[in-house]
Design brief:
Elements (H helix, E strand, L loop, with lengths): L1 E4 L7 H9 L7 H20 L4 E8 L2 E8 L3 E7 L3 H10 L4 E11 L5 E9 L7 E5 L2 E2 L3 H10 L7 E10 H10 L5 E9 L1 E2 L5 E2 L5 H6 L4
Helix pairs in contact: 1-2, 2-3
């Protein structure tokens, strides 16, 4: 599995990441959502460089133009609810993509112990397609593994792109072990070193779903 850490090269992406981390900027939920979208847009552009392309003939008012466009049949999936703004960023570029949605959440047994539960799946057939799984916060990687397992009930994709905004090193190692193969790649805007006792990424940014849509009970 190939890992693309976009923070290794300086770009305007770094500003978007810094703002979603900043406790003062986080008070503006609209800006938080928009920055998550913009990170998705940047990542979509970078991913598109690895797609399969062929040359097509396009009729213009004055003649025929030969252009290279991607041939991948895309499905953009996300894990509800935190992934929705990130997902929208991908759709801004991949506007012809199909969409899939998975509900995965932590069900706590006590303050520190929890299990990941999957309750909802809506997806087209995935056979032979390019699947992008947009999960903004990869803490342990367990929810993504279960979400992917649920998606596989809809068929086997030809390529899998795992996309996160911030991933822990533990999640990166976990995913590299679980998702081996040349047809899988991991894309992230930052890799953070630690998890706390509640399995939240440190320094991270907090709860992305709450910051985007309000605190849940």
């Amino acid at each position: 599995m190939k890992i693309y850490n976009l923070s290794e090269n300086n770009s305007e992406l770094s500003r978007f990441v810094s703002e979603i981390r900043d406790v003062e900027v986080q008070k503006d939920s609209l800006r938080f959502r928009r920055n998550m979208e913009r990170i998705g847009e940047v990542m979509a552009y970078e991913m598109s460089k690895t797609f399969e392309y062929s040359t097509k003939s396009i009729q213009t008012p004055l003649g025929i133009a030969r252009v290279n466009t991607a041939d991948n049949s895309l499905v953009v999936s996300t894990i509800l609810r935190a992934g929705l703004p990130f997902h929208q960023g991908f759709l801004s570029y991949f506007d012809k993509a199909e969409n899939a949605f998975v509900s995965a959440y932590r069900k706590y047994k006590d303050a520190l112990k929890f299990e990941i539960c999957i309750e909802y799946l809506a997806s087209p057939r995935l056979d032979g397609k390019t699947l992008i799984i947009a999960d903004p916060m990869l803490a342990t990687g367990s929810s993504l593994e279960l979400a992917y397992g649920a998606l596989l009930t809809k068929g086997k994709p030809a390529h899998v792109y795992i996309a996160s905004v911030i991933a822990s090193q533990k999640a990166v190692d976990f995913i590299a072990e679980k998702f081996s193969g040349e047809n899988v790649s991991l894309w992230t805007a930052a890799i953070d070193p630690e998890l706390n006792e509640h399995a939240y990424i440190i320094p991270g940014l907090g709860d992305a779903g709450d910051l985007a849509f309000g605190v849940k009970e």
